[in-house]
Write a structure and sequence with these properties.
Bound molecules: fe (ii) ion
CATH superfamily: Ferritin, core subunit, four-helix bundle
Structural class: mainly alpha
Number of domains: 1
Shape: elongated
């Protein structure tokens, strides 16, 4: 007869076994800031894109900002589940993000290239979050960050593919 596995987590200070919840919440907050800021930038490009690629970029960005908006909610709720406060000020979103504003009117191709760069940078940040989460016994955040990095890497590919010469 097979012996049943004894499913008991290792002894830790917190019942869930997730260590360094402050650091994890802070790391998730950075990605949340990126996600929120890129939601707005994606939406702004959706409104302002012009030229022969209008319809393609307008439609692609619509799916992307909808995904980003939903993800911001998931990330904020993960912070709350870790017992920490989600951001309450737009200044924290602005300061905590690697996404930057661009000046001037951009062509459709420049918009796609700019967004693709942001998606790639956010994916890179998420890879770091995956590592921090794994190191601190937090498979739920690891899973969420893995799912999010897959979205961003795919978004970067699609935006670049759209404007390839
Ligand atoms: Fe729209």
């Amino acid at each position: 007869m097979t012996q049943a596995l004894n499913i008991v987590g290792e002894e830790t200070d917190v019942p869930s076994g997730v260590r360094n919840q402050d650091a994890l919440a802070e790391a998730i907050s950075g990605v949340l800031a990126d996600t929120y800021r890129l939601t707005f930038k994606t939406h702004a490009y959706h409104w302002n894109v012009e030229g022969p690629l209008f319809y393609s970029v307008h439609n692609l960005t619509e799916g992307q900002y909808e995904n980003l908006f939903g993800a911001a909610d998931e990330l904020a709720e993960r912070i709350r589940a870790l017992g920490k406060m989600a951001p309450t000020q737009m200044s924290a979103i602005m300061d905590g993000s690697v996404v930057q504003d661009r000046d001037g009117a951009l062509s459709a191709g420049e918009m796609c290239e700019d967004l693709a760069g942001d998606h790639a940078r956010i994916a890179h940040r998420l890879h770091a979050l995956i590592k921090i989460a794994g190191d601190n016994n937090d498979p739920v955040t690891e899973d969420l960050a893995t799912e999010r990095s897959a979205f961003h890497e795919k978004a970067a590919w699609m935006l670049r593919a759209l404007t390839k010469a």
